[in-house]
Design brief:
2 copies of one chain form a homodimer. By secondary structure, chain A is α+β, with helices and mostly antiparallel strands. Chain A is built from 19 helices and 11 strands.
Chain lengths: ~600, ~600
Amino acid sequence: MPTYRAPVKDTQFVLDAVVGLNNFSNLPGFAEATPDTVAAILEEGAKFCENVLAPINLSGDQEGCTRHDDASVTTPAGFKAAYDAFVEAGWGTLAADPAYGGQGLPHVVATAIAEYLSSANMAFSMYPGLNEGAQAAITAVGSDAQKRIYLPRMVEGRWTGTMNLTEPQCGTDLGLIRTRAEPQADGTYKITGTKIFISAGEHDLSDNIIHLVLAKTTGAPDSVKGISLFIVPKFLVEADGSLGARNAVKCGSIEHKMGIHANATCVMNYDGATGYLIGEEMKGLRAMFIMMNAARLGVGVQGLAQGEVAYQNAAIYARDRVQGKALGIVANAEPIPEPASKADPIIVHADVRRMLMDGRAFNEGARALILWGALHVDLAHQAATADERQVADDLIGLLTPVIKGYCTDQGYAVATSAQQVYGGHGYITEWGMEQFVRDARIAQIYEGTNGIQAMDLVGRKLGMNGGRALRAWLALLAQDIADAKGDERLAALAGGLEKATGELQAATMWLMQNGLAKPDNAGAAATAYLHLMGIVALGRMWLVMAKASHAALDAGAGDRAFYDAKLITARYFAERFLPDAGALRRKLEAGAEALMALPAEAF
Amino acid sequence: MPTYRAPVKDTQFVLDAVVGLNNFSNLPGFAEATPDTVAAILEEGAKFCENVLAPINLSGDQEGCTRHDDASVTTPAGFKAAYDAFVEAGWGTLAADPAYGGQGLPHVVATAIAEYLSSANMAFSMYPGLNEGAQAAITAVGSDAQKRIYLPRMVEGRWTGTMNLTEPQCGTDLGLIRTRAEPQADGTYKITGTKIFISAGEHDLSDNIIHLVLAKTTGAPDSVKGISLFIVPKFLVEADGSLGARNAVKCGSIEHKMGIHANATCVMNYDGATGYLIGEEMKGLRAMFIMMNAARLGVGVQGLAQGEVAYQNAAIYARDRVQGKALGIVANAEPIPEPASKADPIIVHADVRRMLMDGRAFNEGARALILWGALHVDLAHQAATADERQVADDLIGLLTPVIKGYCTDQGYAVATSAQQVYGGHGYITEWGMEQFVRDARIAQIYEGTNGIQAMDLVGRKLGMNGGRALRAWLALLAQDIADAKGDERLAALAGGLEKATGELQAATMWLMQNGLAKPDNAGAAATAYLHLMGIVALGRMWLVMAKASHAALDAGAGDRAFYDAKLITARYFAERFLPDAGALRRKLEAGAEALMALPAEAF
């Protein structure tokens, strides 16, 4: 069975060296996030994830969720007890508003814990994850009364939430929604329709489930302009907050799917269910996008999380599994001597190390990018000046699709490579590696496929406010590169990053010159551009981490091996990841012509 | 449910344009492979695969194999009937020796059919696939008596075969084998040990199962030098060929695994089973490698086959699924007009086409490479002169690890992209796309992981006979490029291939200068080098196909759309695949230093 150790020391390093958490203690929420508090949270979170969640990950995948004839759904053995412990410890309350029972800590701290939860048990972590998404929407557009009724119990975790967007005929293109909301005399609505792919739509973990549902009100335009958002509780809520009648919403079936078996993916049937408008009528998409942007960062975390846990197990296996002799030994003598041991651990083989180093270089770089991104979510709300808030908002807006798209594509690749380290055993269920691959796969698909992320990046984010966000990001890169060049120990990495950034700038220029007049050029370039952005973003994080590692070593840090490993991995990133930047630029500059040339019937 | 249409026209095109099948009609076997015969075989094979095998692929995955208390194994519903039909039609006899009931056709024809079988039902196709591997070993090293007893029934398909290499402690490194063979007074051996991952080790399809088992004879060296190969039939065979007593070999369990659920992956327990030495004592590995080289080409076919069937379904979905408007339409007007239709088929979106074109460019290129490779298997045995046989043997030896490694890595990538086209539906079992991904995954792992393929390429094949094979391959590339430059319509593709070939030559030079003295440099470069070889090899196939397409169009071919599509896809390959060559070279030239720097305990 696979194991998991939360990378607390790595998280701490990123919080110190990249996020600079201590620089923000003047801001609300950050004041409480003292080094001691953060250390305690990470340590306790690590224990919970390692000891409670990880042990039921493989069994949860095997058992899956069960829908009963009465439309109720049971989660796998151990999940209810683990969820009760989760609520008891308050793991869902970290970054929530103290007004509703939250601890009011920065998102960056909650994001660090989110990684551990997802590594230990991705399917489990989605129940509280969806709950947080629903809370975000209620917080953003709910009335005071709605907040007062729903948020305290959702924050605590006794109630959970869901997001209901997709319908059979309608995924990315929400204008096609058919679910109807018929206004009633008492101000409520009757919601009727079928929603699919509703994660955590029905289960036995919480007392109530608060569905947030997109629907079109009677007479509204049959397009995205006619969509409103509704709260539809599984159990109606009395004025005193107690549970009332069962609402007319039921789980019609649960999907059989590639992975995340322990999370119930439900078809939800709304049959004249009582719903409450939340936010303004026909402004439902806006609320949904608030929720979705936060969710997209969370999905990026899942890519990292599966890459991390898969890497950890591959590293253990590579140190343990004895097979073949190190090349160096065999090749240096003729005839081949009878070796002292019959075989070496496979970690002696360079090609096995390549797979492990790919994992390290991505995981550690992605953790830095994600926590740095989460800091900017905080700063976008909490920074002292309007200018600082705007810059933070620009940067995280630009990088959200990159974090979601690049980190999930690479997380899947890392999980696949980690499985490969096991040879045939990696294909066998009991070793757990194939589950990491199957679970990681969904993160590339949901919350907007990675193709949609790429279109969001090139079609919306690049051009917003005259390209202000990209300019801020490039300025940051230029500054970091210029600073690093002063230190000859960083020159190679800084030079590689400068070259990759040059490819990014050239690709951006190409997009400006070719994408506006002919949008298919933007579409044809989008995924390559997103990956190019991802490589440069991780390169920048490695530069920052390398700089901090040299500083720590110069200051006589006790744990030299830790910082040496960072410097070696930074070099590996420069040597093995950055070269793709040039190839990606060449690919995207090929444009849309060959792509769009074939008639549809030729496929 | 997914569908499958065998790409008969594409196969024909490759057989004509790339393989030049008609040029070899003077050779044994090829004489019978007249255009009419080949066309009939492809058409009939297509029908069988489409109508018999494809319909039980998804259900076979769902049901899987069942081991009963008496150690017998039942295949999923429909498999026995399909196998009987397979035997009845003689699909396993195409390339087998007429002396044993085969049709004696070229391997290249059988390989074309192997693709169809694997696309339609990979798990099913492995039963006859393993059987052919076992036949190859018996053919290569069996005595006349052994051939006479086993081959006719195995060729017919009434008996099947298996390959037993792996043990719990022993995968790649066969020196670690513990299975023992104790000589008996009657010349037989008692075989005792446990073999794992035995595909088709036990099932209900055939009357007898002929296990080929690696074991060490009493007193033999406890290393690769002490390994012998044995025939261990499930039922002992009487002198008249009838079945005798049940042998002491049983299926201990079947593995639960990521995919190919309908193929029984068995733990086989040998408990003093009667075995017959095949070939010379302690020369067992040699026989196994004969079998394995053929098997590796077959695994490359599986990579292509899963890429092809996944692509086909993605293309159908992309033409059918209506979601979002084409960018061109939305962007050209302000305010956005209410469009005539609410949404377009998603094939209008450039990023969806990117995934489909990646699939086409790989699948069609890989089919050409694989059939061209299969031709060289034939030529290595059948070509008229010793020189021609040697060149063919050199080329297929060099390219076998490339076909296995590159085609399975890319086949998996294409299957994953095809799944992505489906959005959330791709993750749901009933659509069948996630099965293609899970099935494709094993091909990167078995018959020598792709890392082992890469080591075989750089550590063995490159240097054999002073690099003779690579020189022959580079000369072929240079000739094709020089020829193509005379036609300005081919200049861009030829130029791109020339550049990529230059990267390959430089990478080879780097390997010669750095890999011999320090083998870890070769190990660190191996996978990147294999991919670089793969890209160049597919590039060469696209150049040949583009040339043939122009020739067909110049000659007034009726089906212009077919050849136009080839030319567009060739251009796409040049624009979107060839640029990786430079990045791969840069990565491999980074060498082993950063890779090997960390102590094992740092992972």
